[in-house]
TrEMBL record:
PANTHER family per record: ACYL-COA DEHYDROGENASE, ISOVALERYL-COA DEHYDROGENASE, MITOCHONDRIAL-RELATED
Family under the similarity heading: Belongs to the acyl-CoA dehydrogenase family.
Named cofactor requirement(s): FAD
Organism this protein belongs to: Haloechinothrix salitolerans
Cited InterPro entries: Acyl-CoA_DH_CS, Acyl-CoA_Oxase/DH_mid-dom, Acyl-CoA_Oxase/DH_mid-dom_sf, AcylCo_DH-like_C, AcylCo_DH/oxidase_C, AcylCoA_DH/ox_N, AcylCoA_DH/ox_N_sf, AcylCoA_DH/oxidase_NM_dom_sf
Pfam families named in the record: Acyl-CoA_dh_1, Acyl-CoA_dh_M, Acyl-CoA_dh_N
Gene3D superfamilies for the chain: Acyl-CoA dehydrogenase/oxidase, N-terminal domain (1.10.540.10), Butyryl-CoA Dehydrogenase, subunit A, domain 2 (2.40.110.10), Butyryl-CoA Dehydrogenase, subunit A, domain 3 (1.20.140.10)
Lineage: superkingdom: Bacteria
Protein name (record): Acyl-CoA dehydrogenase family protein
Domain Acyl-CoA oxidase/dehydrogenase middle: 123-221
Every Acyl-CoA dehydrogenase/oxidase C-terminal domain range: 233-381
Keywords: FAD, Flavoprotein, Oxidoreductase
Amino acid sequence: MIDLRLDDTYETLRKTVEEFAQREVAPIIGDFYEREEFPYGLVAQMGEMGLFGLPFPESYDGMGGDYFALCLALEELARVDSSVAITLEAGVSLGAMPIYRFGTEEQKEQWLPALCRGEQLGAFGLTEPDGGSDAGATKTTAKLDGDHWVINGSKSFITNSGTDITSLVTVTAVTGKKDGGGKEISAIIVPSGTPGFTVEKKYSKVGWNASDTHGLSFDDVRVPQENLVGQRGRGYAQFLSILDEGRVAIAALSVGLAQGCVDECLRYVNEREAFGSTIGSYQAIQFKLADMEMRTHNARLAYYAAASKMLRGEPFKKEAAIAKLTSSNAAMDNAREATQIFGGYGFMNEYPVGRFYRDAKILEVGEGTSEVQRMLIARELGL
């Protein structure tokens, strides 16, 4: 028989993050959201809790856990706020994980301990102004000049790229041509503050207003040759595998948002009265909440299934795409229904469901659009 209950270690982690989110994040995150301000204090607390080091070995100041532990933490954070959740997700999945998966031992020893402690943040520079879903259309270049790479180009929509604690961005760049004439794309670490590396003005966003997102530009940026991550010419393939893992993490975050919508609505419908009764007594509201709970439940099962295959070392590309597609749909649908249940109050940023609605849409876009997920699923079916 399949047993989906969390063991004691996972359940203790889940409960700890749930309590942190409710006690520390929920009371103050709305103000950060309104001011579009990065919550450094909360991020520092998350670092002290070890959340940024969850899936990394203790030898790099990690917690010695696994990727599923990270997913549980993301789900609980996103039940309250997606800005803090995406800061953790991007810091781990996109900032630190490429170095851990593909970096040299020297790179791991130099960068990972501070990233695992949450004292520094890393970012992932893949998307470009003219290349969103078509990440292979990379125009940023890196050419060897002696023992240094010289990088020129730009990146867009990069999370965790402009904070006071951002230490590096790993960027994909064209480093030559393959034998068949195609682009040779490699991954290179660019430390923050490198001359010629400019963090552009932060974006004015629809949602995730308390997270950090910028465009980046590179003008003859020189970094040592040894900043190459993994094999030359394998940068694109490396990041495709990183995105498979990241989609499971985004699925967990999406489930958290979907569950947060259920949580907030259950509280509200038992207090709000209309036509002489609490609105939770009306079948129309009950059916909405039943559908919201169903979507959340199914989405959680989808990311659990993808995570289980990942941890067993089995191919999980299709399951990751299914989880990401299912959970982002659930988050968007639940946010819309929650806003409807709250009525005019749901349109106000002071209420969590208003923020949930604004935050949900990007989940159908970031780390692979819903259309890309369908392409991946179809391809894995042999089509």
